[in-house]
Design brief:
The chain has one domain. The chain is globular, with a radius of gyration of 12 Å. The protein contains 2 helices and 5 strands. The protein is α+β, with helices and mostly antiparallel strands. A hairpin with a 6-residue loop joins strand 3 and strand 4 (47-52).
Length: 87
């Protein structure tokens, strides 16, 4: 499954780590626009959301698609990737 950025407007964009295996912290910070937080998806997949830890506090817009995936409110753009992509 491809890693992707899910934007608050519903658009998605495929991405990959620069080193080919896992994302660096600066890459993750850039994707979400700040400090990161990992949200595990409630399904049995080995996928996670990397979200902005302060998205709600900073007034970022609600991300309906990410909220539906996570089963909880998610604010701002997110990275959806495999658990093995973040170390």
């Amino acid at each position: 499954m491809t890693d992707m950025i899910v934007k608050t407007d519903g658009t998605t964009m495929g991405v990959a780590p620069k080193n080919g295996s896992d994302y660096s912290l600066p890459e993750l910070n850039k994707f979400v626009g700040g400090y990161i937080e990992i949200v595990r998806l409630p399904t049995r997949t080995k996928r996670i959301l990397v979200v902005n830890e302060e998205g709600a506090i900073n007034g970022m817009p609600l991300n309906p698609q990410a909220t539906a995936m996570a089963g909880q409110p998610i604010y701002g753009d997110v990275l959806v990737c495999g658990t093995n992509r973040v170390k």
